[in-house]
Amino acid sequence: MAAPFEERSGVVPCGTPWGRWYQTLEEVFIEVRVPPGTRAKDVRCSLQSRHIALAVRGQELLQGKLFDSTVTDEGTWTLEDRQLIRIVLMKTNRDAGNCWTSLLENEYAADPWVQDQMQRKLTLERFQRENPGFDFSGAEISGNYSKGGPDFSSLEK
């Protein structure tokens, strides 16, 4: 079985003081570096539709209102190698035009170049879904791709 589109095409990460975040059409991924040797019992993570809170050993690392809504019951977090917390949030709006410009409402914004690359990637991911027999993982996109690119769904086949 072929790897999902986002795995073949790479990710467009947005660096932060605590780690990085990136997105696909459906999900937002957050990777937080924590002190080596961190145990799951040291982690307090609250994932709500529009709010996130993460603390390790009583120290708040990430807290605030998310840029857009997520599906509360589908958010997860894992501790990997006792030094990285990976949080996966499922977007409520899974349209290519819903490219988050920041992780939180007023924090961790992607710089303009990164935002442009994120939008290009989500548009290519949308094209891949609409045309499952084609491989867009190495494709370049230019022109009108903002807000998910042009809508070809009404064209005759």
Automatic annotation (TrEMBL):
Residues 138-157 are annotated as: Disordered. Coiled coil: none annotated. GO terms for molecular function: unfolded protein binding. CDD domains: p23_NUDCD2_like. Signal peptide: none annotated. GO terms for cellular component: centrosome; cytoplasm; kinetochore; spindle pole. Residues 14-104 form the CS domain. InterPro entries: CS_dom, HSP20-like_chaperone, NudC_fam, p23_NUDCD2. It is found in: Chromosome, Centromere, Kinetochore; Cytoplasm, Cytoskeleton, Microtubule organizing center, Centrosome; Cytoplasm, Cytoskeleton, Spindle pole. It comes from the Eukaryota. Keywords: Acetylation, Centromere, Chromosome, Cytoplasm, Cytoskeleton, Kinetochore, Phosphoprotein. Pfam families: CS (PF04969). May regulate the LIS1/dynein pathway by stabilizing LIS1 with Hsp90 chaperone. Interacts with LIS1. This is NudC domain-containing protein 2. It comes from Chaetops frenatus. The lineage of its organism: Eukaryota, Metazoa, Chordata, Craniata, Vertebrata.
